[in-house]
């Protein structure tokens, strides 16, 4: 059948067309929610969105009916930094441990524990954080409703995410590189630090990103550990140490019987999305950079 | 005089014996070729010589492998020290995501050598020994991945030479390369054997005949025979060796 060499059969072309359209359709379904959020938030919130909105603190009565959301932006940043400074080192170390130990019983236990932690509802974390950090009576650290209490509670939520993604990213480094280092007389630790970790950096960056994005959207853990502040505190602990938080701010604003506050909630959602985008790009840039550095330093 | 010596060596993956009762000597300043059909155990044997099988689950051994008289599986030799003395080059080039310079310097850096001048000297010396220097001297800071496959493999050889090993293990080092790159690697092996003991696993009979002084024929986990390459290829003493090298099986 000579003509079949000249062009694909009708059957093949038909199948290609169907599969191609299906792929496009499912891609559309996948991004639709994002477009929907952006559209709704933009449509409802654009009227208050200006430089003033992101650079001033909320004022008026009820608080927030005038002014901007600087408290929420700054607070969210502070919480992310606090949560990351706990979870990133702990999570990466735990991930390296799991990679090293593979299938020994202790590593299996850590892995199981880590998976269980991933499944703990965030409100439970909030209550745990309350007892450990915030409550002023009984055991615990008595930090009050504060940024440190809230940030570390969010850090707890991030740890298992960073741990599992780090382990997986290390496992994805081709075995041939690992063996190449061992064959040169590198110890396990040297192989991990010099070859496996630089190769896994992009994956670990994604893990940190997922953790941060998760944390940025949390409100329940903060209800019992930080709650909310309409200003920016001087201290991160104690009764004056709470910070604002964008997610919490949106939650509070939409509960106010005030149209302007609803509009501001939508505008704040847009700002939150923009921050997510900036952090995403920032982490991509950082891991790209560290790969470059890794290629120069041993 | 033998650099390494293997006596009554058995290797197991779980319950399965991959190697049975292997005894042979690895001569210094010669090339030993390991030949045999796929699955005969030659790669397992090669990787047993620098304990690369330690990372394989449920791998275990019996018998003895010595380097200069010291049992490499005993507590007298740490695997890390062993691998500095018994270097290895793999089937597929596996340069690190680093510059050409840093790839070669890596083995020295992990030994704690920081001096830029020592590193530069050793990198140049190793790249020259691997016949790569003239091709890369102008771009030592470019990524190793900017090199062709054949150059990458010679870079991996340079990397192995930089730590000044005594024995070099080559696991089908040319099987992923084109004929020109292959012949360069083979010439290189001829140069290197003046200084090192070399063990090469190859599927290619002609290659074994071209590059090696001694040949060992493995079959189903056993060493059928070993001897001068010229004798193995012209007058083997075992009929199975003859069948294999004349292409009757494998």
Keywords, please?
heterodimer, A: 298 residues, mainly alpha, two-stranded antiparallel sheet, 12 helices, 1% strand, flat, disordered C terminus, B: 250 residues, alpha/beta, six-stranded mixed beta sheet, four-stranded antiparallel beta sheet, 10 helices, 10 strands, 36% helix, 27% strand, globular
How would you describe this structure to a colleague?
The complex is a heterodimer of chains A (298) and B (250). Chain A is mainly alpha-helical. Chain A has twelve helices and two strands. Chain A starts with a helix and ends with a helix. Chain B has 250 residues and is α/β, with parallel strands linked by helices. Helix content of chain B is 36%, strand content 27%. Chain B has a six-stranded mixed β-sheet, with helices on both faces. A four-stranded antiparallel β-sheet of chain B has the order 2-1-4-5, with helices on one face. In chain B, helix 7 (179-192) links the parallel strand 7 (167-171) and strand 8 (197-201). The longest helix of chain B is centred in the middle third of the chain and has 14 residues, at 116-129. The two termini of chain B are 32 Å apart. The mean pLDDT of chain B is 93. Chain A binds chain B through residues 103, 174, 176-177, 179-187, 190, 194-195, 198-199, 291, 294-298, and chain B through 50, 52, 55, 57, 80-81, 83-84, 87-88, 90, 92, 94-99, 102, 105-107, 109-111, 141, 143, 156, 159-160, 163.
Topology (elements, then pairings):
The complex is a heterodimer of chains A (298) and B (250).
Chain A: H1 3-6, H2 10-45, H3 51-55, E1 58-59, E2 66-67, H4 70-101, H5 105-118, H6 122-134, H7 147-171, H8 175-183, H9 188-216, H10 220-223, H11 246-255, H12 259-296
Antiparallel strand pairs in A: 1-2
Helix pairs in contact in A: 2-12, 4-5, 4-7, 4-9, 4-11, 5-7, 6-7, 7-9, 8-9, 9-12, 11-12
Chain B: E1 2-13, E2 16-27, E3 31-35, H1 42-48, E4 59-67, E5 70-71, H2 79-85, E6 86-89, H3 100-109, H4 116-129, H5 133-136, H6 149-162, E7 167-171, H7 179-192, E8 197-201, H8 205-211, E9 214-219, E10 222-228, H9 229-234, H10 239-245
Parallel strand pairs in B: 3-8, 3-9, 6-7, 7-8
Antiparallel strand pairs in B: 1-2, 1-4, 4-5, 9-10
